[in-house]
Design a protein that fits this description.
It is built from 5 helices and 10 strands; from the N terminus they run H-E-E-E-E-H-E-E-H-E-H-E-H-E-E. By secondary structure, the chain is of the alpha/beta class. It is globular and about 50 Å long.
């Protein structure tokens, strides 16, 4: 075994121990991410605190279901109102670690699909909260083929590879992903 591979394994082990301790001390939070799909495109946003394009979503509040959280996040981030029955089951589960406002978070996330009956609507950001105007600076409807072929960064990082499988209804369990 070469030294570089051994260092890589050691680094992964150190990262897992560090993240376990963060989860233990601060507690792992629960979150939802939504693939808002109009049959040809998905909706993605850019945050000021993370590189690349992200699925809309965020933390699940105490007493809130994943469906309610997905609805709230889409309303806050895109100005879209959807119903509970438009939110699909959590077929993709994952753990992610990222920084927000200088604090590292560890979050167990479910990824759900909201399939729209027609072309994605215009995005209305007028209902965003003050901190959301600071946090989100771009949004875009992305054709699926562009996502899967793009050199851009995405969150989840495996979105370009896993998106087609998810849209076909495959259940996905993704391991821990650590963002800078």
């Amino acid at each position: 075994m070469n030294v570089k591979m051994e260092q890589s394994r050691w680094h992964r082990l150190q990262s897992r121990i560090y993240l376990f301790l963060i989860g233990f001390v601060r507690g792992m939070t629960l979150g939802t991410r939504t693939i808002l799909y109009d049959g040809e495109r998905i909706f993605l946003i850019r945050h000021t605190y993370m590189p690349g394009w992200q699925l809309p979503g965020g933390g699940i509040e105490p007493g809130e279901t994943y469906r309610e959280a997905a609805r709230r996040e889409l309303r806050e981030e895109a100005g879209l109102t959807i119903t509970d029955d438009q939110v699909g089951p959590p077929l993709w589960t994952r753990d992610g670690s990222f920084r927000h406002r200088g604090v590292r978070h560890l979050q167990h996330e479910v990824v759900v699909q909201v399939r729209l009956p027609g072309p994605g609507p215009d995005i209305d950001v007028s209902g965003r909260l003050d901190y959301e105007h600071e946090d989100y600076f771009a949004y875009r409807w992305w054709p699926i083929a562009e996502v899967t072929a793009s050199p851009e960064r995405f969150y989840p990082g495996q979105l370009p590879r896993l998106l087609p499988r998810f849209l076909e209804g495959e259940t996905i369990q993704e391991p821990l992903e650590v963002w800078p």
